[in-house]
């Protein structure tokens, strides 16, 4: 059966398979020649500038046509030889069983035998095929490398595994980090110890981090620090990754987060909270009093774009208190934001209520 399918669907050359994967990600089913050239440059970077580059693209298009992955247009570009179609059309998803057929044309190692029955895209088959070859050639080794170092070794690009790890290729019974002898690193949190409490207070932006840290360290009476043990700079979106470092902070049982009231300022802790829950880390919760104080300021800025109601409600839900959620959802929907810098160093020193409930 495998031999029959392999005859019907030719195995794609590596650079052609890379082109097929890029075509799968195209926004439209019809891809014009200029777009094809851009994709081909990514698929065959070593061919850039070579006289046979056009012929190689023509061969790749023919491979994809033979595999029923594209239908070349009847109109052609005659500006040079060989002639090329002016566009190609991708089959509708329901009419594209080619990925399964391609998977069946490969002799898989036992660790990847599940690829024969999985629902995969051509790009995923190509990723698995590359890993299949790497496992074949490296299974006798026992080295362990960080994720991006391993990705560069296996795929020739350091970020391929970053993207793949969040897909259905990874998981129980599929690819694991142990299988690839790799591990995810995470950036450290830039933080300062300010007390003995069990709370790590993470602040999105560096200026407000400085002001909060100064307000805490400037207190003579340590009991006024409340439950805060550490204050850390989240560095904006970096906290989505550095949240994994929270488990390394001794004595911390929960994380409180304070950021801007805007779509990114809420998306970041929401994502970090999901990561913390998934990986058994201290929970990431809102610094409720700080958010309420921010809402109580008279600072309002027009945001660059409106946020549709369902998205606004979804990100605001992380705040987990009905009035906060309602108020913030309304602001986001009106394309209004409040930067956390609206709570100045002076305000943070004079109004100590922001420590309540941490």
From TrEMBL:
Domain Wadjet protein JetD C-terminal: 200-348
UniProt keywords, alphabetically: Plasmid
Tree of life domain: Bacteria
UniProt cross-references to Pfam families, sorted A to Z: JetD_C
Name of the protein this chain belongs to: Wadjet protein JetD C-terminal domain-containing protein
Organism: Rhodococcus pseudokoreensis
């Amino acid at each position: 059966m495998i031999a029959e399918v392999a005859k019907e669907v030719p195995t794609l050359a590596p650079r052609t398979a890379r082109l097929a994967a890029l075509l799968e990600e195209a926004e439209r089913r019809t891809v014009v020649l200029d777009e094809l050239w851009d994709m081909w440059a990514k698929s065959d970077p070593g061919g850039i500038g070579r006289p046979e580059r056009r012929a190689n693209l023509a061969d790749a298009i023919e491979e994809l046509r033979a595999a029923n992955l594209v239908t070349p247009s009847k109109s052609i570009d005659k500006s040079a030889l060989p002639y090329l179609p002016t566009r190609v059309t991708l089959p509708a998803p329901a009419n594209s069983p080619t990925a399964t057929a391609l998977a069946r044309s490969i002799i898989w190692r036992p660790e990847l035998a599940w690829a024969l029955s999985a629902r995969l895209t051509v790009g995923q088959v190509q990723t698995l095929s590359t890993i299949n070859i790497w496992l074949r050639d490296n299974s006798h080794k026992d080295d362990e490398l960080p994720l991006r170092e391993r990705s560069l070794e296996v795929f020739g690009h350091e970020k391929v595994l970053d993207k793949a790890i969040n897909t259905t290729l990874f998981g129980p019974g599929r690819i694991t980090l142990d299988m690839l002898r790799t591990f995810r690193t995470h950036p450290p949190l830039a933080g300062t110890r300010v007390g003995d409490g069990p709370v790590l207070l993470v602040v999105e932006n560096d200026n407000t981090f400085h002001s909060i840290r100064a307000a805490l360290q400037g207190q003579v009476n340590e009991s006024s620090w409340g439950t805060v043990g550490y204050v850390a700079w989240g560095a904006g979106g970096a906290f989505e990754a550095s949240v994994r470092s929270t488990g390394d902070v001794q004595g911390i049982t929960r994380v409180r987060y304070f950021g801007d009231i805007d779509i990114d300022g809420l998306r970041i802790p929401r994502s970090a909270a999901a990561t913390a829950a998934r990986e058994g880390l201290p929970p990431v919760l809102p610094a409720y009093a700080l958010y309420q104080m921010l809402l109580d300021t008279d600072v309002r800025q027009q945001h660059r774009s409106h946020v549709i109601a369902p998205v606004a409600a979804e990100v605001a839900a992380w705040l987990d208190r009905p009035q906060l959620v309602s108020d913030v959802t309304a602001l986001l929907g009106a394309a209004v934001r409040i930067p956390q810098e609206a709570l100045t160093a002076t305000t943070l020193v004079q109004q100590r209520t922001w420590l309540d409930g941490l």
